[in-house]
Design a protein that fits this description.
Structural class: mainly alpha
Distance between the termini: 22 Å
Number of helices: 9
Shape: flat
Order of helices and strands: HHEHHEHHHHH
Radius of gyration: 19 Å
Low-confidence stretches: none
Strand order of the largest sheet: 1-2
Largest sheet: 2 strands, antiparallel
C-alpha cells in the first residue's frame, strides 16, 4: 500500500513539473523536480526493504530513470539556464507506473555478501549510460537547431559542452560496466554458487562492453563524433538494455517465470 501511494505521488510530481514548468520560475521547477525525485527514491527504497525484496525488469528501469533524473538535476544546478525536459519527466512517470504494475520477483535470500555490490555496480552503469543516451539525443537536437537557426525552448548549452558531458558519462558508465563484468567473472562462484555460464544476459553485456570500448577508442584515436559516435552509443545501449531488462522482461512477462 505504501509503495502504491508513493508511486502515484511521484508520478503526479513528475507530471506536474512537466505541465507547469513554463509558468514556474527556475527555482520552483528545480524544487518540484527534487520533490518528485525524492518520492521516486522512496518508492525504490520501500520495494527493496520489503520482506522479501523484489526486483525485475521494471524496477531496473525505474532505478535507471531515477539515476538519469539525478544527473540532470545536478546539471540544472550547475547550469541554471536548463529546464527540465518533458521527455525526461515523462520517462519518470512511465518508469514509476510500470514498476508499480510489474514489481518483479522476490529475492528471499542474498547468496553472497558480494551480490549487492555486483548489483549496485550494474545499476549505476545502466544509469550513467542511460544519461549519456539522453545527452546524445540532446546533442543531436542542439546540432539540428543550430543548422536551422532555431532556439530550443528548454534552454541550451554550447554543442561542445554537451558533447563533453556525453562522453564523460559514457566513460564513467564504461568503467562501471567493466567493474560489473570483472566482479561477475571473478566472484561468480561466490555470487551464484557456480562458475560463469554464458547465458543471454552475459552475452549481451559483453557485446555492449565491446561496442563501448570501440566507441571510446575511436573517440580517443580517431576523433569520432557526430552520427558515428551517437549511433554506436545507441547500439551499445540497446545491447546493454537487452542484457538484463530484456532478459527479465521475457522471463517475467512473456514466459511468466521468476
Amino acid at each position: 500500500m505504501l509503495t502504491t501511494v508513493l508511486s502515484v505521488a511521484a508520478a503526479l510530481g513528475y507530471a506536474a513539473v512537466a505541465v507547469a514548468q513554463r509558468r514556474w520560475g527556475g527555482g520552483t521547477v528545480r524544487t518540484g523536480l527534487t520533490v518528485a525525485w525524492l518520492l521516486h527514491g522512496a518508492v525504490l527504497v520501500s520495494s527493496l526493504l520489503a520482506v522479501p525484496p523484489t526486483f525485475g525488469f521494471a524496477p531496473a528501469l525505474s532505478v535507471t530513470a531515477w539515476l538519469v533524473t539525478l544527473v540532470y538535476a545536478i546539471e540544472s544546478h550547475i547550469y541554471p539556464q536548463l529546464k527540465a525536459k518533458a521527455a525526461l519527466l515523462g520517462l519518470g512517470v512511465v518508469a514509476v507506473l510500470v514498476a508499480l504494475l510489474f514489481p518483479g520477483s522476490p529475492y528471499p535470500a542474498v547468496q553472497s555478501t558480494w551480490l549487492p555490490l555486483h548489483w549496485a555496480l550494474g545499476i549505476a552503469a545502466y544509469g550513467l549510460i542511460a544519461a549519456a543516451v539522453v545527452h546524445a539525443w540532446w546533442m543531436q537536437r542542439t546540432e539540428k537547431a543550430m543548422r536551422e537557426g532555431v532556439t530550443l525552448r528548454e534552454g541550451s548549452l554550447p554543442l561542445l559542452a554537451i558533447e563533453r558531458l556525453t562522453f564523460r558519462l559514457v566513460t564513467a558508465g564504461f568503467v562501471l560496466l567493466t567493474a560489473t563484468l570483472v566482479a561477475g567473472w571473478w566472484f561468480a562462484e561466490h555470487l551464484y554458487g557456480h562458475g560463469i555460464t554464458w547465458d543471454h544476459k552475459r552475452v549481451f553485456a559483453v557485446l555492449s562492453w565491446a561496442v563501448f570500448a570501440v566507441l571510446l577508442l575511436g573517440r580517443w584515436r580517431l576523433g569520432w563524433r557526430g552520427r558515428t559516435a551517437t549511433r554506436m552509443l545507441y547500439a551499445g545501449s540497446g545491447l546493454l538494455l537487452l542484457a538484463y531488462v530484456g532478459s527479465r522482461f521475457v522471463l517475467e512477462v512473456v514466459l511468466h517465470r521468476a
